Amino acid sequence: MRISVIGCGYLGAVHAACMAELGHDVVGLDVDEAKVRKLSQGVAPFHEPGLPELLARHVASGRLRFTTDPTQIADAQIHFIGVGTPQLQGRLGADMTYVHQAVDTILEHAVAPQDGRPVLVAGKSTVPVGTAEGIAARLAESGRDIILAWNPEFLREGYAVGDTLTPDRIVYGLCEDRAVGNRAKELLDECYATQLAADTPLILANYPTAELVKVAANSFLATKISFINAMAELCDATGGDVTRLAEAIGHDDRIGRKFLQAGIGFGGGCLPKDIRAFMARAGELGVDEALTFLREVDTINLRRRDHAVNLAEEAVGGRLVGKKIAVLGITFKPDTDDLRDSPALDIAGRLWARGAELAIVDPAASHTLRERRPDLNVPETVEEAVTGADVVMLLTPWREYVRLDPSSLISLVNSPNVIDGRNVLDPHEWADAGWTYYGMGRGVSA
Ligand code: UGA
């Protein structure tokens, strides 16, 4: 099939490359010339395992193209919208400008195929519920045979290629007019034939349900993380160990073990902004009470960052001025170079504001960090970062940091304090090696 993907950020670039992998002829459209240039050379503009290989293969084969020229999308049968919906400046809601611009672009440039089938617009961006109805109405008003489906995306950064090629479910939000809905379904079925043949569960829904599935899923995940972080607060107040608690409750498969990792909380370009946009939309719909619990989820999450800063102060016995802190990991989670709403970056900023001298290492984001903050000390190696440190803080659980050897690092530091912001180190191993270990809801071991 001929496919266009509008917006080539995390979602769009991965989707475009994966659609090419499925055998489709794909053009990705973005306004960012630098990004398009990189993608056109088969180079990933961000760190995502598996993506460079797909880009290189399919750009070389000619099955995948990237452009800033909207006329190039004209003959696509399906136009996927994968643009960003960032949080509005100073407000909780989502900025829908790019989604509406994408619809404008499609209406201006899409050309109906000759085979009697419609042009399909498939929305993938995370949007406030009700957006799809509005877009469908605009498409209908154009008087052309252009129809809409809402097809939310559930990929995780770091696993984006696998999540797109072998998703755990596919959702089609279809027009309630069955005839229109069936025409859209037929095109999506053809597009996702490989996944459907592999028995990927397919959920058919109306537009609002499909839009809600996405924000409901992210809200549930955020709630799960804040729940376990609330339990971490209880553990800290009582001498409990939240990692054991999570393990024990997680064995109940009604609860499940995933997303029960207590620590410095969730960040990234999705969970925080999505729960806030969801609350804002509920307010507009007059059902804000239904989501007031998400305000608490957000508050608990942000409190984890305060707690990490407080632990650093506790470790140095008071004021942070002039204390050297080694920060291991600055991205919002491992296997990405994404710094959007990174809890680690926020905590580092607060430590710096309190006068601490920081040395920050990260396997993927050092370069960006040096560019953005030339005033910060961003050494190449963990050894350089921890040399002379009063506190070592592990804030993003990159594999190489989880495996660090406490015995070999101890001779480099000024004071052997380690704060395990993600509860991924073994407290006994670090304490036995001579460190004072601070966990997040698992006490202090020395
Ligand atoms: C999230 C969802 O997991 C995806 O399903 C969704 O498609 C995506 O948002 C999106 O809306 O596009 P992502 O932002 O890549 O994916 O990151 P997650 O893996 O969900 O992690 C989010 C944050 O929660 C990270 O900061 C992570 O460190 C933190 N986290 C995760 C915890 O603190 N504890 C956990 O147990 C799990």
TrEMBL record:
Enzyme's top EC category: oxidoreductase
Family: Belongs to the UDP-glucose/GDP-mannose dehydrogenase family.
Organism: Tessaracoccus lubricantis
Protein name (Swiss-Prot/TrEMBL): UDP-glucose 6-dehydrogenase
Pathway: Nucleotide-sugar biosynthesis; UDP-alpha-D-glucuronate biosynthesis; UDP-alpha-D-glucuronate from UDP-alpha-D-glucose: step 1/1
Keywords from the UniProt entry: NAD, Oxidoreductase
NCBIfam families: NDP-sugDHase
Catalytic activity: UDP-alpha-D-glucose + 2 NAD(+) + H2O = UDP-alpha-D-glucuronate + 2 NADH + 3 H(+)
Domain of life: Bacteria
Enzyme Commission number(s) of this protein: 1.1.1.22
Domain UDP-glucose/GDP-mannose dehydrogenase C-terminal as annotated: residue spans: 326-427
Keyword Zinc: no
